[in-house]
Amino acid sequence: MAKSSIVSIGAYVPPKILSNDDLSRMMETSDEWIRTRTGIHQRHVALPDETTASLSYQAASAALKGAQMAADELDWILLCTDTPEMWTPATACFVQDLLKAGRASAIDLTGGCAGFLQTLELGDALARQGKTVMVIGTELLSRSMDWTDRNTAVLFGDGAGAVIVQPKPEQGIRLTHSRTFSDGSQADILQKPYGGTRNPIPPEIVAQGGHHRIHMEGQKVFRQAVHRMSDAAKQVLADTATAAQDISWVVPHQANQRILDAVAGELRFPTSKVFSHVRNYANTGSASVILALADMLIQNLLEPGQRLVSVAFGDGFSWGAALWDLLTLPPVEFVGRDL
Ligand code: UT7
User: 116 and 138 in contact (C-beta within 8 Å)?
Assistant: First the structure.
């Protein structure tokens, strides 16, 4: 079956920036602590009138514009997020309406920080059947964050990314191979426990603002993230009989700089070839791999003929890696990007 490719990329981050110093005025933390433990200097956060659907719409519109494609050419909109517009209907349906993508079937997936790679694998399967698929990853965590919890509040930022996937094996970024995994037995290490059917939100928790609390055992997440992302990358290289030295860049989920450096070490890859812009955007969950890829293209780091490995890890736990071949440079637009 013909392989599919990413033929256009759109990205969006909100104009509002929250620096580490801003955070240190809101909670017991410091710029120095955040920089040294995470590499993060700032994050973009949504304006009051922005929502997950509006962020997604910005990124999706940019991708359509780049591809010079009308919204009604889309067959599918797959949207991955941990922070949906509302419980129901799917955020993807709001985006379908905003885009006026009259022919598209629209559905959400919840995959955490590995969600984009998982959703892209599904988008690839649809594209191989001849469909034109918009794959979106969006996170608006600032709206659902416990801003009193310094253990988690400093780590995340808001943003959205969108790619158009089509069965065009000679064009764009070819989705050569992908392996994604999940291990739900470790769900309790990183979760937002309140608000679902297991733990409806008790009024006293609402009163304390605790329903937004993300429970995270940071060091366990750290160890698993390094181990799982490295293993998945090795798996993808082994599956495709690809030598590590044939890979030009690793395009990782932007968890934090120490994790990225440790993954580089595990893979015996120079840290300079593991792309990072975590200092500017922090961890944007489902959006982060697309934002990274968009930024790399805009910085002219990529050229046809290069082979890329993307890796991601997040709640679930879910994780994965993908091998991409850069055939031609796809159009890219990154709205709100830091210069
Ligand atoms: O996509 C996956 C998303 N999650 C992640 O990527 C997180 C992975 N984990 C990590 O990156 C690290 O574990 C963290 C950055 C979250 C924390 O770094 P750490 O080196 O593991 O620190 P720690 O949790 O061991 O905490 C060390 C100290 C503690 O104080 P005490 O108990 O030693 O007095 C924390 O209370 O640092 C304290 N601390 C802070 N201090 C200032 C925790 N957060 C902060 C903060 N500012 N924001």
Answer: no
Cα R_g (the chain), whole angstroms: 19
User: 225 C-alpha vs ligand 1 centroid, how far in Å?
Assistant: 15
Say what the pLDDT of residue 169 is. 79
* Contact call for residues 85 and 51 (beta carbons, < 8 A): yes
Q: Read off the tokens for 117.
A: 């790679």
Percent of the chain residues past pLDDT 90, beyond the cut: 90
Catalytic positions are 113, 253, 283
> Whose alpha carbon is nearest atom 43 of ligand 1?
151
How many Å lie between the centroid of ligand 1 and the Cα of residue 37?
7
Q: What is the number of the ligand 1 atom nearest to the C-alpha of 225?
A: 2
> Which parts of the chain have pLDDT scores under 70?
1
How far apart are alpha carbons 61 and 70 in whole angstroms? 10
* DSSP structure string for 165-218: EES-TTSSEEEEEEEEEE-GGGGGGEE--TTSSSS---HHHHHHTGGGPPEE-H
Domains of the chain: 5-174 (3.40.47.10), 176-325 (3.40.47.10)
pTM of the shown model: 0.97
